[in-house]
Automatic annotation (TrEMBL):
InterPro entries: Acyl_CoA_acyltransferase, Bact_Acetyltransf, DUF7931, GNAT_dom. GO terms for molecular function: acyltransferase activity, transferring groups other than amino-acyl groups. Coiled coil: none annotated. Residues 7-145 form the N-acetyltransferase domain. It comes from Stenotrophomonas daejeonensis. Keywords: Acyltransferase, Transferase. It holds the Pfam family DUF7931. This is Acetyltransferase.
Amino acid sequence: MDAPAAIRIEAADYACRHEQLHALRRAVFVDEQRVPMELETDELDPLSHHVIALDAAGQVVGTGRLTPQRRIGRMAVAAGWRNRDVGAALLQALVAEAGRRGWDEVSLHAQLGARNFYVRNGFLPEGTEFEEAGIVHQTMRRRLDGPMHVQDPAQGTAAATAVAHRARRRLLLHCRGGDAPLLGQPPVLQALRRFASARHDKQALVLLHDGDLQALPAALLALMQRLPSVFVLRGPADPADAAATSAAILNDTGDCYFRPMGERPDGELSLDSPARALAHETRFQRMWERAHDCPGLRALGI
């Protein structure tokens, strides 16, 4: 995503901008979150790549860093600028810098309150929660050189959320009978609502295996009933398609969460991979063209 129109994102030379960086970080971490002052600064600051968000007056309203350990951290946004995509723009700039350096992955320690923010931006949780500076955190990681392995339900939820959140005008969902728990997770539903409620034209094609509406959570069915112009549902008609075991969620930005065994969360998440996503989309489209309307949709008003 691009930076919000009201701000600009720049790389910041630490030697020249350290006072501005630390002023914002102290306001967020020390004053708001009660992190001890001595933990706000460390020996990695002079060695790290820093980015800042500047408002129209040139004031620093956001900052973050990329350390030599290939870790993103010290993400801070001024209180008046939160929920305005400043954090996402900073994060994108740091991920892009890691890519320019040829790194294969980046990691971070997310505060639990910010975990879904990083999920929406393609980071998968790993390991157990832990305490750092008196605050509970979660390790998260994003690969930059290829697909990420999805190995458990928590990572499956994160993968589905990322693909749905990053969709612009088109979303393809090949669902199976075991998908109700996945698609019913709050972060996934939130991303689907965001996509479906966007003001621009958009469409979600849902290929529902066996036409089983029970594969969809009640909250998603309600969303489909409310926005029938957005969601189009079909079920496989060809016997070979009906026998397929895979499932997938794809968008129009080159992202795909593919599961070879659709009843399980195990699979791979590919981000910004148009060629890989196209292969899955081609298969989906062939099945879609052979599919028929799901039985029971008329009764639901879809």
